[in-house]
Amino acid sequence: MSLETPLHKVEGLGPAHSGVKHFWRQRVSATALVPLSIWLGVSLLGLVGGSQADMAAFLQTPLNAGLLAAFILIAVYHMVLGLQVIIDDYIYVNWQKLLSMFAMWAFALAVVAVCLFDLLRIAG
Questions:
Q1: In the CATH scheme, what is the code of domain 24-123?
Q2: DSSP letters along 46-94, please?
Q3: How far apart are CA 5 and CA 9, in angstroms?
Q4: 93 burial level (CB within 10 Å; 0-12, 13-18, 19+)
């Protein structure tokens, strides 16, 4: 029998004591995606009916290329944060969790690499 209160028993007990940091990273990335998504939506609506050359000219502007690169990076990072929570919550076997995390990060890095490579190729 312990004299500790139930609250004292669970305080500080978490998977890695990083829940608050993860929470804020997810909220900050979501907040950063709001203006970037609006910019992307308005920009794409402005390009409706345009040619492939119009799209290439749009991406050759440094500001547009930079904003699109920021959108890609932040969106993929936000995706990784969300998938990490899903994997942590629903996969219980450690080796499956590790394999899922590795596959998720590999996929995210591949998506970022391909997107940024193509963006640089178009903008350059």
A1: 1.20.1300
A2: HTTT--HHHHHHHHHSHHHHHHHHHHHHHHHHHHHHHHHHHHHHH--SH
A3: 6
A4: exposed
Q: Comparing 50 with 9, which gets the higher pLDDT?
A: 50
The Cβ of residue 68 has, within 10 Å, a number of other Cβ atoms equal to 21
Q: Rounded to whole angstroms, how far apart are CA atoms 69 and 40? A: 11
Contact at 8 Å (CB) between 87 and 22? Answer: no
Other beta carbons within 10 Å of 75? 19
Structure tokens given for 17: 């004591």
Query: Is pLDDT of 39 > 70?
Result: yes
Contacts of 65 (CB under 8 A, 6+ apart): 59, 119, 123
> Mean pLDDT score of the chain, rounded to an integer?
90
pLDDT confidence band for 19 (50 / 70 / 90)? confident
